């Protein structure tokens, strides 16, 4: 009986080791971040680019948006484009402020490593935007994210 218990325990440990994630190279995250920012830096419709790193299983503090930008004059938001590093998934939380009111909404986990994905912006909250905040959460791997805010109007403060 003890042999079976020891054998099952050994198989369980091997199964856990087989499921553990490979460590992520911080230099690879840095290269992705620089490359992602450079890909949009000359686009005329980019109002702001927000970005941050997030650890696996971590949730950023979402007090008034983890990372945010305020506009010097009200902006019209055409789209929000999200991308993240690696082959994991990450959920997001967007915060938009307009006329002194704020809306906060999230998105289910999205796959990282592909092309930027457009995030839904409620029609009511596209106009005369004063501030955009964003945070990544529930990342399945050490990663980084980037949010590109596209539109017209107010230059970022």
Automatic annotation (TrEMBL):
<protein>
    <recommendedName>
        <fullName>Lipoprotein</fullName>
    </recommendedName>
</protein>
């Amino acid at each position: 009986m003890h042999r079976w218990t020891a054998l099952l325990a050994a198989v369980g440990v091997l199964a856990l080791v087989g499921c553990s994630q490979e460590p992520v190279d911080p230099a690879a995250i840095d290269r992705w971040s620089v490359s992602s920012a450079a890909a949009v830096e000359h686009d005329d419709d980019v109002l702001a680019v927000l970005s941050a790193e997030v650890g696996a299983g971590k949730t950023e503090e979402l007090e008034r948006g983890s990372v945010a930008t305020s506009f010097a004059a009200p902006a019209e938001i055409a789209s929000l484009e999200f991308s993240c590093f690696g082959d994991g998934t990450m959920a997001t939380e967007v915060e938009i402020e307009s006329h002194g009111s704020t809306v906060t909404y999230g998105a289910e986990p999205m796959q990282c490593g592909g092309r930027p994905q457009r995030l839904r912006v409620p029609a009511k909250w596209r106009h005369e935007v004063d501030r955009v905040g964003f945070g990544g959460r529930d990342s399945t791997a050490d990663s980084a994210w980037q949010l590109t805010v596209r539109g017209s109007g107010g230059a970022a403060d």
